[in-house]
DNA sequence: CTCAATAGTTGATGATGTCAACTATTGATT
DNA sequence: AATCAATAGTTGACATCATCAACTATTGAG
């Protein structure tokens, strides 16, 4: 018994293709801000004013906790994030953006969300449809 | 003169979000096949029966040529790809999949293109629309 | 109070990625 | 034909990414 029809497979295949295409762009974009792709991902996940425990970060990144330690070490040494011991549980350390980190994050999101020219080939109606569909995909 | 309207920006933002969500899945999926994310990308780019020069690979991956050397060294030592000197230009080496490599690649694509459950939430009509839109985005 | 479980760090190791320097080959200019 | 800059790929040095195992500190259940 098949869960997804041929159209779902086609769509997914295209999304995977899109994913690999983007994967190649990220290092260049990151380098311009003197970040690595992994650091971009971390910065992307720490929302301003919403500190996040390191453990949750490891979970979202699907990587080992010790990897997060190193990643954060480097970001912290550049003054982009800071570790704050949690009041509720003294084992956990919450990561917060410094003002400098928040500015860099904003710049990063800004650069990343400049749509490529190909998006301009779609009509406004198609763009809206795409938004609707993707929103349901990600919810 | 405006290049992209607000809808294009929204759409792109969602695609970026999708990208980061997928990025976290890849290492797990790759590990099941005893591959790294980078190796998945390489394998994805070498189509069976269509050898590709190492330089082109570096270009597509947007990374240094020396990086490709190491990447290919490891894949070759596992018998997944082989370097073939080009007849036309003895400087270039074309990468081809071995039968074993082709099988692993097929397995990889198979696993990657299993649509996530969220795609099933879309109607078939929406799926078709998504396919149409993405196809134009990637062409 | 004890003790297993959890959050994070450390150290060892391998993979990824860059850069600079190198070899071999190519192709254009003289 | 001889030269020489440009190109394809490799090598070595080095930083980063990522895993694992072992460790410390803290928590929470019994």
Largest sheet of chain A: 3 strands, antiparallel
Gyration radius of chain A, to the nearest Å?
18 Å
Task: Classify the oligomer.
Answer: homodimer
How many E strands of chain A? 3
Biggest interface pair, residues each?
A-B, 56 and 56 residues
Which bin fits the share of residues in helices of chain A? 55-70%
Number of helices of chain A: 6
Helix/strand order of chain A, N-terminal first: HHEHHEEHH
Percent strand of chain A equals 5-15%
Structural class of chain A: mainly alpha
Mean pLDDT of chain A: 89
**Order of strands across the biggest sheet of chain A?**
1-3-2
Fold and architecture overview:
Two copies of one chain form a homodimer. Chain A has helices at residues 6-32, 37-45, 54-61, 65-77, 99-112, 124-138, and strands at 52-53, 81-85, 93-97. Chain A is mainly α. Chain A has a three-stranded antiparallel β-sheet. The longest helix of chain A has 27 residues, at 6-32. The radius of gyration of chain A is 18 Å and the shape is globular. The mean pLDDT of chain A is 89. Chain A binds a DNA duplex (30 and 30 nucleotides) through helix 2, helix 3 and helix 4.
What secondary-structure arrangement, pairings included, does this model have?
The structure is a homodimer of 139-residue chains.
Chain A: H1 6-32, H2 37-45, E1 52-53, H3 54-61, H4 65-77, E2 81-85, E3 93-97, H5 99-112, H6 124-138
Antiparallel strand pairs in A: 1-3, 2-3
Helix pairs in contact in A: 3-4
The first copy, chain A, binds a DNA duplex (30 and 30 nucleotides) through residues 27, 36-39, 53-55, 58, 63-71, 74, 89-93.
């Amino acid at each position: 018994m098949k869960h997804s029809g041929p159209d779902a497979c086609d769509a997914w295949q295209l999304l995977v293709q899109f994913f690999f295409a983007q994967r190649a762009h990220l290092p260049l974009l990151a380098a311009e801000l003197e970040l690595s792709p992994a650091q971009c991902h971390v910065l992307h996940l720490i929302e301003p004013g919403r500190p996040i425990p390191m453990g949750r970060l490891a979970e979202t990144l699907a990587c080992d906790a010790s990897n997060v330690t190193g990643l954060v070490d480097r970001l912290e040494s550049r003054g982009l994030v800071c570790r704050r011991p949690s009041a509720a549980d003294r084992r956990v350390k919450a990561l917060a953006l410094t003002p400098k980190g928040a500015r860099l994050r904003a710049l990063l999101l800004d650069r990343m969300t400049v749509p490529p020219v190909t998006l301009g080939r779609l009509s406004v109606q198609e763009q809206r449809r795409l938004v609707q569909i993707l929103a349901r995909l990600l919810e």
